[in-house]
Amino acid sequence: FGEESMARVIRWLGKQKVPLDSSVLDIGTGNGVLLVELAKSGYTNLTGIDYSPSAIQLSEKVRDKEGMCNIKLKVEDFLTPSAELSGFEICIDKGTFDAISLNPDNAVGKRKQYLRSLCGVLKPEGFFLITSCNWTKEELLNEFREGFEILEELPTPKFCFGGRIGNSVTALVFQRKK
Known about the structure:
Blueprint: H1 2-15, E1 23-27, H2 33-40, E2 45-50, H3 53-65, E3 72-75, E4 88-94, H4 96-101, H5 107-121, E5 122-132, H6 137-143, E6 148-154, E7 158-161, E8 164-167, E9 170-176
């Protein structure tokens, strides 16, 4: 999703005056660059998970090169999270839900498991920021209707095709219900 996607998330957190010591989980961290940018912005309680050991190895290299040794990184499948993965105040997803949704083996069941996992790791009243290139706002509202309420749609680039205006990316902020 690129730098603008990261900047969008960091701007929102700053605008909301989210405390810098809030516990943040980057779901499907990939190369870990979002966590590095959050650390550069002053956030101190950062964890990234990815089911791919090579992604975690890459993110460790990026973290170490940037001197951000306080970022925690773990090989972990979000659909079957370990018991220690809990109590986060903020969860961020940029593309992981998309990837899970495209799984040819029981995508509907995996999306439901994602929601259960999210409810298990995110504290009540915690924030969930999702960026998707596969889902519209309405579809995401439907997917996360149980247990979450929409707080805000973050502005994303628009395009026009056939006289209709749309977005190539959807970015939403949800809050977990009590």
